[in-house]
Write a structure and sequence with these properties.
heterodimer; A: mainly beta; seven-stranded mixed beta sheet; four-stranded antiparallel beta sheet; B: mainly beta; 12 strands; 0% helix; 51% strand; globular
């Protein structure tokens, strides 16, 4: 298995632009998580899905953030409009029921 | 609510010496406990987990962790550290009902040659 695949690995954009991050979870996994990692706040859970349905989005910082999972093999995290304080590494992770999480390599976002 | 504490931001150890990275937790009921490692510019990688059974859990790369219910701890250990073990280590806990783990802030392990 190729593991959790995220794209892009790096994104540099200007304030106000729309950013879309993509994730392909491991086949057969029924939970998908989006995390954000910064030096100041560590690892933050933004939202998670179970069987493609969003379960808890209380970690999404603002309405500028949205996430979708149209099918079991694809999820997106969108920021519109982006701001410099959104600069961080965004991780996608998946798991099957009670198991450990499998993380992607992350998408490093820089908003200028 | 569940929580994890990693009391040390950084642990320094000489190569060849034993290492310990500390973790304490709080959870309702029996815990599921995990350790992950993150190398620079990489995602978190699973090292080991405790669900039930023996209190000493063995994992990848020679790491092990000891579950101590009375002290609510799950410290990560390795008998002989390698320079390549230098990385950021995360402890995580979840209860038996929620599938959502809570992560600690992470501990930076630095192994000196």
């Amino acid at each position: 298995d190729a593991g959790v695949i995220q794209s892009p690995r790096h994104e540099v954009t200007e304030m106000g632009q729309e950013v879309t991050l993509r994730c392909k979870p491991i086949s057969g996994h029924d939970y998908l998580f989006w995390y954000r990692q910064t030096m100041m706040r560590g690892l933050e859970l933004l939202i998670y899905f179970n069987n493609n349905v969003p379960i808890d989005d209380s970690g999404m910082p603002e309405d500028r953030f949205s996430a979708k999972m149209p099918n079991a093999s694809f999820s997106t995290l969108k920021i519109q409009p982006s701001e410099p304080r959104d600069s961080a590494v965004y991780f996608c992770a998946s798991t099957r029921q009670a198991g450990e999480l499998f993380f992607g390599e992350g998408s490093r976002l820089t908003v200028l | 609510a569940q929580s994890v504490a990693q009391p040390e931001d950084q642990v320094n150890v000489a190569e060849g010496n034993p290492l310990t990275v500390k973790c304490t937790y709080s959870v309702s009921g029996n815990p599921y406990l995990f350790w992950y490692v993150q190398y620079p510019n990489r995602g978190l990688q699973f090292l080991l987990k405790y669900i039930t059974g023996d209190n000493l859990v063995k994992g990848s790369y020679g790491f092990e962790a000891e579950f101590n219910k009375s002290q609510t701890s799950f410290h990560l250990k390795k008998p002989s550290a390698l320079v390549s073990d230098s990385a950021l280590y995360f402890c995580a806990v979840r209860d038996m009902v929620s599938y959502i783990p809570t992560f600690g802030r992470g501990t930076s392990l630095i192994v000196h040659p």
